[in-house]
Amino acid sequence: MFEITEKRILNPTVEEITVYAPNAAAKAKAGQFIILRTDEDGERIPFTIASADPEKGTVSVIYQIVGAGTRKLSALKQGDSLHDFAGPLGKPSEIEGENVVIIGGGVGCAIAWPTAKAFKQAGKNVTSIVGFRNKDLVILEDEFKDTSDAFYLMSDDGSAGQKGLVTAKLEELIQNGQKIDRVIAIGPLIMMKFVCELTKKYNIPTIVSMNPIMIDGTGMCGGCRLVVDGKMQFACVDGPDFDGHKVDFDAAMKRNRQYLDFEKHKYEEACNLLNKEVDA
Amino acid sequence: MPNMRMDKNPMPVQDPEVRIHNVDEVATGYTAEMAIDEAKRCLSCKHKPCVAGCPVNIHIPEFIARVAEGDFEGAYEIISLTSSLPAICGRVCPQESQCEARCVRGIKGEPVSIGRLERFVADYMREKGETPAVKAEPNGHKVAVVGAGPAGLTAAGDLAKLGYEVTVFEALHTPGGVLMYGIPEFRLPKAIVAHEIDKLKDLGVEFVTNFVVGRASTIDEMMDDGYEAVFVGSGAGLPNFMNLPGEALNGVYSANEFLTRYNLMKAYDENSSTPIQHPTKTVVVGGGNVAMDAARCARRLGSEVHVVYRRSLEELPARKEEVEHAMEEGIIFDLLNNPVAVLGDENGHIKAVECIKMELGEPDESGRRRPVPVEGSNFIIDADCMIMAIGTSPNPLIRQTTPGLDVNRRGCLIVDENEMTTKDGVYAGGDAVTGAATVISAMGAGKKAAAAMHEYLSSKE
Ligand SMILES: Cc1cc2nc3c(=O)[nH]c(=O)nc-3n(C[C@H](O)[C@H](O)[C@H](O)COP(=O)(O)OP(=O)(O)OC[C@H]3O[C@@H](n4cnc5c(N)ncnc54)[C@H](O)[C@@H]3O)c2cc1C
Ligand SMILES: Cc1cc2nc3c(=O)[nH]c(=O)nc-3n(C[C@H](O)[C@H](O)[C@H](O)COP(=O)(O)OP(=O)(O)OC[C@H]3O[C@@H](n4cnc5c(N)ncnc54)[C@H](O)[C@@H]3O)c2cc1C
Ligand code: SF4
Ligand code: SF4
Ligand code: FES
Ligand SMILES: [Mg+2]
């Protein structure tokens, strides 16, 4: 059993938990992920490692409540335990390029922030551009500021930072002549796709973090497969980071919607169940 | 006087119409009377041809003689001399190509039902409640086992009995390997696998689940941490695909994914939180045990199921019994066909499979006639689900993270006659070494490696 030693609410749908998992904590590197299960019959849910403390033996993850699995997780409190916590999984991010722009979209910022931190710690020049739909959804603003040489906050409606898309800010920086060796984009597939279209035009190497539907996370099921450079790749072992200019985003978007109906149904069921527990 | 009936005592089974609506075991097992009666068909041949057909050389006539006397406990003791997982192997061994293939009773009529008797004896002992195993006197040495499939479990058990402090590191949340995530409940109830694992815990074996060796720790780091020898039984879990156009479509699964969702994640149960498609028409590609299992799981989810296999019925590599059971369950065999493309709808979901007819040409290096496509014979099967069961290879993670561990062209770990790899103190066995094979051969390799590790560590002192 893996105890939740701390819990933090970042916004109405985004939370951070710190979990006692010394094996994972000892080895975790930026860009890697874990798979957890809340209970004996729970789903295997993958989350990126947000930070790890090898001394305390803890690993933190930041997650958005989107469906039944994350809702059940959110019902757990500090002091409760998770049934399973496997990690680290996947390949660590390559910390390469002197001048990098890190782009985070929505909850993708939870994945982007540890990457920004790793680049900063390696002495690189880090520009962060983060985007949210509105100000209620903003997460990790202070954390990003701490780990960035320049920080830009964007929102769709202008209620936080500047109004506009992250791609607009990126293009502005490029056109202003900012030296950029590498872009790292992490967020919704559609955002990563447009970032990649833009950087391709300017020939800037771009890494994306792909989060397809996974089960085992060990390369055994092939469910997480992606088409990269025309070849099949398994995100859980070959990634999750890939050369964004080679990823087939359209295929990936279709695969992520595979179980939509089932997930909706399970979410409603979980809501009913959890509400009942709250009433009782 | 032996019983000279020509055929085996039939195995009682659930009616096909009933069993396609549940996940209970298909074959329900012999009663004591049936077992004794079947055991009397054995001639106790002096030269024991059957024994040579068993990869672990179970003392077959001797245990069967005990069964014939009604001494099931005595029979179990004899089996246990060479096998650790009789309840499992009795169920899943391809007996028709192993022990039973050599049985003299099979020359005229059917061979003695060795597998069913083995299963009966093991089930009898489990149900009766064996006396719990006693921990051996600790010998002060620590060893690690990577992977909790039949190879790893067997090595762990044998080493624990020799007094080693054994830790098994398993990537998934449940030990058992393919026995848990691959082979379905209706063929191998998970409670039986769990029982075997509990027995190992009684022996003092420690299980660390959720631990991916190569990521959470490398083998070198484990050896630095005080494990004096390591057994690698990481299996061959990496699914092969055919690189067909459209293989990335939704509704196209590897057999491993479909079976993992169905078995390990219990998607057959309506209350499970794991999604699985409930297809109406499924194409399963392949002809081995994995293909049969995937087909029969899809059938139980209510689908019409077609097995597309490029050779003919004679070459189907699956266990004979599984093919028969699959046919009884209404699975359709589209033999001498091969898929060439997967066609999708506008939502990115599979809607059909394009196939081509095959004919058998000259024999290839395996001695089987090579299937060759018949030019221009392409045709379409409508399908909303496709399951690829065309084989697996060893997962590359361990070899990528362990310097000094050599593999062959197919990515299988290279071992010597003592199951020692090219790295000192590191042993390996099972599918990680042979490529996808059988439970009994994995178990045999685990046994052999445990003995060799004991010799290695004893001689080091
Ligand atoms: C490597 C990786 C790292 C991730 N890191 C984070 C993170 O740091 N923070 C975060 O909030 N989310 C992260 N995710 C996504 C997270 O796993 C899903 O949001 C979660 O599984 C949804 O589960 P649910 O049951 O609550 O929702 P559901 O209602 O079941 O699903 C909602 C949507 O989530 C996705 N999803 C569902 N099941 C899975 C699955 N098994 N694997 C991947 N995606 C799935 C699908 O697109 C689905 O439509 C990551 C995913 C991957 C693969
Ligand atoms: C669907 C299916 C049906 C089958 N039917 C039959 C049958 O009827 N009869 C028969 O004899 N054989 C059958 N087989 C084959 C048989 O199951 C295998 O040959 C056997 O399980 C191999 O045993 P193993 O111990 O080598 O590996 P596995 O059973 O594959 O176990 C390997 C274990 O190692 C773990 N692992 C892998 N990598 C790591 C790592 N890096 N760190 C930690 N753990 C790791 C895996 O998670 C797994 O639990 C079938 C196989 C499948 C897939
Ligand atoms: S272990 Fe398998 S091959 Fe050996 S006797 Fe039993 S059923 Fe036959
Ligand atoms: S070959 Fe057949 S009849 Fe002879 S000992 Fe073996 S099981 Fe009995
Ligand atoms: S999640 Fe199964 S292979 Fe990647
Ligand atoms: Mg879910």
Walk me through the topology:
The complex is a heterodimer of chains A (280) and B (461).
Chain A: E1 2-11, E2 14-20, H1 22-27, E3 33-37, E4 45-53, E5 58-64, H2 68-74, E6 81-82, E7 84-89, E8 99-105, H3 108-121, E9 125-132, H4 141-146, E10 150-155, E11 162-163, H5 166-175, E12 182-186, H6 189-201, E13 206-209, E14 225-228, E15 231-234, H7 235-238, E16 241-243, H8 249-256, H9 260-279
Parallel strand pairs in A: 8-9, 8-12, 9-10, 10-11, 12-13
Antiparallel strand pairs in A: 1-2, 1-6, 2-5, 3-4, 3-7, 4-5, 13-16, 14-15
Helix pairs in contact in A: 2-9, 5-6
Chain B: H1 16-19, H2 32-39, H3 49-53, H4 60-69, H5 72-80, H6 86-92, H7 114-128, E1 142-146, H8 150-161, E2 165-169, H9 178-181, H10 190-202, E3 206-208, H11 219-224, E4 229-232, E5 238-239, E6 252-254, H12 255-264, E7 281-285, H13 289-300, E8 304-309, H14 320-328, E9 332-335, E10 337-344, E11 350-363, E12 369-373, E13 379-382, E14 385-388, E15 392-393, H15 397-401, E16 426-428, H16 431-434, H17 439-460
Parallel strand pairs in B: 1-2, 1-4, 2-3, 4-16, 6-14, 7-8, 7-14, 8-9
Antiparallel strand pairs in B: 5-15, 10-11, 11-12, 11-13
Helix pairs in contact in B: 2-4, 2-7, 4-5, 5-7, 6-7, 8-17, 12-13
The structure holds flavin-adenine dinucleotide (FAD) (2 copies), iron/sulfur cluster (2 copies), FE2/S2 (inorganic) cluster and magnesium ion.
Pfam families (chain B): Fer4_20, Pyr_redox_2
Protein name (chain B): Glutamate synthase (NADPH), homotetrameric
Organism (chain B): Ileibacterium valens
Give short descriptive properties of this protein.
heterodimer, A: 280 residues, alpha/beta, Elongation Factor Tu (Ef-tu), domain 3, Rossmann fold, 2 domains, 7-stranded antiparallel sheet, 9 helices, B: 461 residues, Fumarate Reductase Iron-sulfur Protein, Chain B, domain 2, FAD/NAD(P)-binding domain, 3 domains, 5-stranded parallel sheet, binds flavin-adenine dinucleotide, binds iron/sulfur cluster, binds FE2/S2 (inorganic) cluster, binds magnesium ion, FAD/NAD-binding_dom (chain B), Helical_ferredxn (chain B), FAD/NAD-bd_sf (chain B), Glutamate synthase (NADPH), homotetrameric (chain B), iron-sulfur cluster binding (chain B)
